Amino acid sequence: MGFFVGQYSAKLGRPGGDWQLLKHLGRYAVHYRKLLVLAFVLLLPLAFASAIQPVLIGQTISLIRQEPVAAFLAQRSLAQGLQFIALLLLVTVILRLSLQGIQSYLIQKVGQNITADIRQDLFNHVLVLPMTYFDRTPVGKLITRLTSDVEALGDVFATGAVGILIDIFTIIAIAVIMFMEQWILALVLLVLLIPVTGLITYFQAQFRKANYQSREELSRLNTLIQENIQGVNIVQIFGRERYNSYLFRKINQRYNREVDKTIFHDSAISATLEWIALVATAVVLIVGGWLVLGDNLTFGVLASFILFAQRLFDPLRELAEKFTLIQSGLTAVERIQEILTQPVSIRDPLVPLILPAQGGGKIHFEGVSFGYKNDELAIKNLDFTIQPGEKIALVGPTGAGKSSVIRLMCRLYEPNQGRISIDGIDIRQLAQGDLRRYVGVILQDPFLFSGDILSNIVLGESYSLEAVEAITQQLNLHEFIASLPQGYHTPVRQRGSNLSTGQKQLIAFARVAIRQPRILVLDEATASLDVGTEALIQTALQTLLQQRTAVIIAHRLSTIRRVDRIFVLKSGQLIESGSHQELLTQQGLYAHLHRMQFQGAGVG
Ligand SMILES: Nc1ncnc2c1ncn2[C@@H]1O[C@H](COP(=O)(O)OP(=O)(O)OP(=O)(O)O)[C@@H](O)[C@H]1O
C-alpha cells in the first residue's frame, strides 16, 4: 500500500510521515504478535483461493469447447474434468468462506485491543502532563482526541479495514496467475493500474487533508459545546444564547464544509474505480478478441481474463474504500501521537531524597522567578523563609501572584529561576508523590469527583470509614456530613453541584486532614458563606492549622488575624511582610487593603 501513503505529512512537518505512525502502531501490535502471525498465515490460502477461481472458470469453457487445457485436466474426459473443476471450485469457496471469518475476527480482536491500549496510554499520559500544557490546550480538544480520534482508530479495525492486506495479497496473487496464463493480457491489465493508482493517490491525499481539517473543526466544536454547557448559567444570565448559537453555527458550517470535501474525494475514488473496471473489460475484449482471431488465445483464457479484469479492480475498489477509513485512522493516530509525544516536563528525580518523617515543615524560596509565558513574569525574584509551624497569610491585589506562589510550592509549575526548598531539600529532588503528601493543598473551588462524600475524602486510598470519622470529628465536621441525606454515602453530582462552595471546602479540609500533611496550603473560598458554614470553616481551620506550617491566601479578616506573618504581594513581588499590627503601622499597601476591607471591598 506504499503508493497511497505519505503525502500529507509533509504539510505537518512530521519527519518520517505515515511510516512513523505505522511504526508507532507496530509497537502496540507487538504485544499481540501470535494472533497477528496466525491472521497473516491465513491470508495466503485466502488470496490464492480468490485468484484461482477465474482460471478454473476459464478452464471449464476450454474443456467444453475442446480447446487445449491445463495439465491437470488433460487426461480426463469432459464429465470427469467438469466434476473435478466443480470440486476445486467448491474447495476454493469453502476456503474463502471459512478462513475469511476467522481471519477477520482475529484482526478485529487485535485491533480493538490495540485501540484500548492506546486509549489507556493516552489517558495515563494526559494525567501526568504539565499544567502549562493544559493552559494552552482547550479541554474540548483533549476530549475529542481521547474519544472521537481513538474511536476513528477503533473503526479502522471494527470495519475490517485492516483486511486491506487481503486485497493487496489478492492483487499480487491475481497478477502472478495472470502472467502464468497469458502475459500480453496480464501486462495490459497491469499497465491500466498505473494511471488509476495515480488518480487514487491524488484523491486520497486530498481526502486526508480534508479529514485532518474536519477533525480540527470537530475539536473546536467540542470545545464550544463543552464551554457552553459548563457555563450555561452565564450564557442564560447574560442572554448570550443567540450570540453563542451564531458562533456555533459558524464552526458547525466550517466542519460541515470539511466533511463535505472528504465525501467528495471519497466519491471521486469510487467513481474512478467504477469507470476503470469497465475500461479494463473493454480493453481485454479488444486485445483478447484480436488474439483469439489470430489463434493466439483460447476462448477459455479470454473468459478468465474478463473475470480477472473485474477481480483485479474489485480488491482495488475495496482497497480504496478501506483506505479512506485507514486514512481517517492515520489522521487519528497522528493527532493522538501529538499528545503522546508531549514531554512530561515535571518528572521525579532518578534517586529522590526523602523528607524526615517527623517535625520540619520549613519552606524556603530563594530568588524564585516564574512566568506562565516566558516574556511575562508572574513571580519576580521571591526570597523568603517560613519557619516550621509558622502561619503565613498571602495577600495582595488580584493578579499579584498569590495563587502562583502556592502552585510553585506544590510543583504544578517549575520556576524559571531560583530554588524552592522544604526542610532544606530542593523540591525538584523529591518524588512528587512525597511532596504532595507532605504539602496538603486546599484550593478555592475544591473539585469533587462523581461518587459519594466518602470516596471524595479518601480519593482511592484505603482509609476506613472509622478513620475518616475520627478526622471529621476532630475537625468538627462529622455532624455536618452525618446530617446530609445519606451521610458519608451522599452522592456527589458532577463537580459537586449539589453542594455549596463552603460545603465543598469542608470536604476538601477532611480530604487533606486525613493525609496528615506537615505543610498546609490553602486558598480560602472568596464566596460569602452563611454564618453556620463560616463558623464550621473557622473551627476546622483552627484544628487543621495546629502544629503545621501553613500558607494561606487569606480573604477573611478572621484568618489574617490568626496568622504569624502576612506577606503582601504586588505584581509578583514581595513588598511588605510582618504581623498585622506591624503592617498597619507601616501605612503601606496592606494598611490600604485593610481599610478597603472595612469599606467592604475585600483584602484578597
Ligand atoms: N494559567 C495561567 N496562564 C497564564 N497566565 C496566568 C495563569 N494563571 C495566572 N496567570 C497570570 O499570572 C499573574 C498572577 O496570577 P495569580 O493567579 O497568581 O494571581 P493571584 O494573586 O492569585 O490573583 P487572584 O487573587 O485574582 O486569584 C496574573 O497576571 C495572571 O494573569
TrEMBL record:
The chain crosses the membrane at residues 35-57, 77-99, 152-177, 183-205, 271-291. The keyword Cell membrane applies. Residues 363-596 form the ABC transporter domain. GO terms for cellular component: plasma membrane. It is a multi-pass membrane protein. PROSITE patterns: ABC_TM1F, ABC_TRANSPORTER_2. The keyword Ribosomal protein does not apply. Residues 37-328 form the ABC transmembrane type-1 domain. GO terms for molecular function: ABC-type transporter activity; ATP binding; ATP hydrolysis activity; ATPase-coupled lipid transmembrane transporter activity. It is found in: Cell membrane. Keywords: ATP-binding, Cell membrane, Membrane, Nucleotide-binding, Transmembrane, Transmembrane helix, Transport. This is ABC transporter related protein.
